[in-house]
Structures are given as C-alpha cells and as structure tokens.
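look at this:
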Amino acid sequence: MGVYLGNVGQVELIRKSLEGDKESVVNPSDVNSSANRFSFDFDEGFLITGDLVELATTDGTDLDFIDASGWDAGSVQTSGNWYVYIDRLGGVKLYNTFANSLEGGATGLISLASIARDIPIRASIRDRDSRILGCVINYELNTNREVVDITTLSDEHRQQYSSLISGSGRLSAEWDYVNDTGMETVHYLMQLVLRTEIGSSFRAKLYIKKQDSAAASGPFDVATQTNDSLWWEFDALVTSSATSFASGEIIQSAVEFVATGPIRLKAQTAPGDKMLQETGDEILLEQGTGDALLLEGE
C-alpha cells in the first residue's frame, strides 16, 4: 500500500462566533462619507479585520449610510453582508471581498453616504468561507470516549458503558500576521483567545490527505486516489496560545483547542458539484459571500 506523508495534509479554518450579535446605533456624526468610514459602539475584539459581517436595521428602515453602489441589487436595503476592515481607532470600513478587506485600501471599498438620522443596527458575524491556515508545521487531534462503570455487586466481571466523546488538540505554525488572498495566519487564532465578547470559536477541517495529492512510492498503484480527500471536521474553542522566540530561529506559535461538538471523520472520493442557474451562473448563498450552493449530498 502507499505511504502518506504529513506534507499531503493541510488545515482549513472557518471564522465563526458562538454569540455573534451586537445591537448599537449609527449616528450622523459616526459616518465619514469622504473617507468611507463609520463607527458604532462595540467592545474591542468584537470584530476582527476580515470578518464577514451582516448589518441589519432593527426598526425595519433602510441602511441609508451605505451608498446604493455598495449593494448587489443597486438599491439600499434593510440588511446586507460585507467584509470589514477595523482601523486602530475602531473605525469600520466595508469591502466586497475578504482579500480587499485585509488590505484596507481603496480597492473594493464600499462607498458610504451621509445621514441625517440615527439608525439602530444589529451586527452579526456570518463568515462561511473555508481558508487555508498558512505555514502549519504540525497538528494533532485527540479524541476520547468516557467510560462509565456499571458493575453491580452480583457481577463476576466488571461492566463498562460507553459514554460521551470529547476532543482536543494542538497545532503549531510559523508566525505571521499578514494575510494572503484566501488564507489565514496563526495570528488570527491568537486574536481569538482575546475575543472576550463573542468567544474564541472557529470551525476546523484538519486534512490527513487533500485533493490532488498522492502517496509516497510504494508497492501498490494508488493513482486512483489522487483526487480523494480525507479530513476531520469539528467546531472548537481556542483555549491557549503561545509564541516562542529564539535567536536565529523562525518565530513559531502553538495553539491549543477543545472541540465543542461532534467530531466527524469525512472522506470525499468525487469532487462536489455546484448547483447552477439556467444561464450557467452559480447560485450564490447570499450577498458578499461568494459561496455557491452545492448539490444535495456533497
């Protein structure tokens, strides 16, 4: 059989929030339409640059401080989804893509409009995109099942009953804080530990074997397995992070986590198909995400 090496695996992350909603008010003085920047009251760490955020009014009116050009429909609505860039003063800029929000520049920046009234809003993190975690050195995942002793006095042998499953793990990566398009850095996981208001949650896919990778040479032909994928998938909380510094060495960060729900070991032996419109275009899940609807079972 083929021998698979660790360099055919990878780690994917999906940003998420356990609580996620924050209600506030955008005042006329909070909107700077010339800089396309606005602000509202939220605790530091509630939003991180790159988050996909749904903004919605709580009184049913339109989000008038977002210019009509910033909407897919071309007209102002009561709710929408954008990627955010958070500056040093806590100001918010909205972007059409994840990559543009990381830069915080003029490309993809959503235009804002001045307002003359207070607008009550609700902000919710809605990220669903999987992104590769860069520069991963290693990871480990431990799964445990608790055993309950149900032995009674009349038994000649000890009786055990299988109980709940739990999981925990650790990953190490070379430290970086500058994101590339479609990728996350371990710096993001370190930020999660400090995210007190909405928790340090994320969704992970830990790949043992990713698509388009092959086994090391062995006595059997495994070419038919090149397009197969095998991974663990689960929700988790970051419980600790540490960064090591040594003279002349690459800075590394280690993150420990615990699973908060089911841990699934999944396999895919055929690529997923996307559901298309009659025009051949992909059916997107919602504005700003870029995610296409998959066929059932994929």
